Amino acid sequence: MTTTAAPDAARSAAFVEKLKATYNAGMLTMMINLGHETGLWEALAQGPGTSAELAQRASLSERHVREWLGSVTVGGVVEYDAASKTYNFPQEHAFWLTGPRYTNLAPMSGMVMGLAQRLDDVAGAFRNGGGVPYDNYRPHFTHSMDVLGRAKYDELLVKVYLPSAPGLIERLSIGVDVADVGCGTGHCLNLMAAAFPASRLVGFDFSSGALELARAEAQRMGLGNVRFDVADVRHLPTDPGFDVIFAFDAIHDQADPAGVLGRIREALRVDGMFFMVDIKA
Ligand SMILES: C[S@@+](CC[C@H](N)C(=O)[O-])C[C@H]1O[C@@H](n2cnc3c(N)ncnc32)[C@H](O)[C@@H]1O
User: Fold this and answer.
1) N or C: the chain end with fewer CB closer than 10 Å?
2) If pLDDT is split at 50, 70 and 90, which confidence band does 1 have?
3) Which atom of ligand 1 is nearest to the CA of 277?
C-alpha cells in the first residue's frame, strides 16, 4: 500500500515564487529586446531623462516609451527618480546592453524571441515525431547569431582564440587547407582568410541564405582564398581532406554530434588539427 505524504507547504511556496520569477524574467527579456530594436537602450545611455526627453532622443512615441520605462524600472534595469521624473541607466547596466562591443548582450534577447516563434512547430514534432528543420528558424536565427558572433570574433578570434592552440598561427601563416563546419554567415572564415592569405579556406553550412551573406562579405573584403559550399556536415568531404578544421559554436547544434566529430576526424590529414569553440553547458 502506498501512502502519500502531505505536501510540504514551504517547498510549494518556494516553487511558486521561482515560477513567477521565471515568467517575469521572460517578460523582461521581451522588454530588453524592444529596447534594443527601438534604440531605447542607446538613448538611455546618453544620460538621465524624462520619458518625453528619452522618447525624443529615440524618435519614438512618449506614451509607449513611458510604459516601457515602467517595466524596465520594475525589472531592475533602469532607476527612476520620482522627484525629477527622470530615468537613469546605471553605467554598470548600460555596459552590458549598449555599444558595438561583444559585451553588448542586448541582441541575445533576439535568440529567445526567435525560438519562441517556432514553438508551435516544436510542439508538432513532439506529437508527430521528427524535428523542426534548421531553416525554419531563419532568417531570425542567422541574424542573431551573426550579430552576437561578429563583435566577439572581430575582437578575439585572431588575437586570443587562435593563439590559444599551440602551432596553429604558424600553420595558417605558412598556408594550409582549412574547413569551417557550420560556418553560418562566414565571418570567422573571412577574418581568417584576410589574416592568413597563404591558406585556402572552405566554409560548409546547410543554410544557403547564410552562405550568400558569407560570399557577399568575402567579395566586399576582396578575398580570393575563401569559398563557401552548401553541405550537410554529416557528409563533410573527406578526400583530399584538410589540415585544419574549425567548428565555431556548431557542434552543439548537431542532431548527431558524435557522428559529425567522427566525420571531421576522417577529413583531417595526418597531423591535422581540429579547433572547436562551443558553449560550456
Ligand atoms: C550556432 S550557428 C554558428 C554559426 C557560425 N559558426 C558562428 O559562429 O557564427 C550553427 C551553424 O551550424 C549550421 N549547421 C548545423 N548543423 C549543420 C549540419 N549538419 N550541416 C551543415 N551546417 C549545419 C547552422 O546552419 C548554423 O549556421
Assistant:
1) N
2) low
3) 8
By three-state DSSP, how is residue 61 classified? coil
**Residue 253 C-alpha to ligand 1 middle, in angstroms?**
7
Which ligand 1 atom sits closest to the C-alpha of 142? 27
- Taking a C-beta distance cutoff of 8 angstroms, is the pair 189, 212 a contact? no
> What atom in ligand 1 is closest to the CA of residue 184?
27
Answer yes or no: are the C-beta atoms of 80 and 69 closer than 8 Å.
yes
Mutate-to-test residue for ligand 1 from 138, 183, 277, 278, highest number of ligand atoms within 8 A of CB:
183
CATH H superfamily, domain 140-277: Vaccinia Virus protein VP39 (3.40.50.150)
pLDDT tens profile 210-268: 899 999 999 999 999 999 999 999 999 999 999 999 999 999 989 899 999 999 999 99
- Extract the C-alpha cell encoding 252: 552543439
Classify 77 as helix, strand or coil: coil
Q: What is the pLDDT of residues 168-185, one digit of tens each?
A: 999 999 999 999 999 999
Q: Look at residue 278 and give its three-state secondary structure.
A: coil
For residue 183, give the 3-state DSSP assignment. coil
The chain-wide mean pLDDT, for the chain, equals 95
Give nearest CA residue, ligand 1 atom 8: 248
Q: CA-to-CA distance for 152 and 149, rounded, in angstroms?
A: 5
Q: Residue of the nearest CA to atom 2 in ligand 1?
A: 250
Which residue spans of the chain are classified as CATH 1.10.10.10? 9-106
Evaluate whether the domain defined by 9-106 bears CATH number 1.10.10.10.
yes
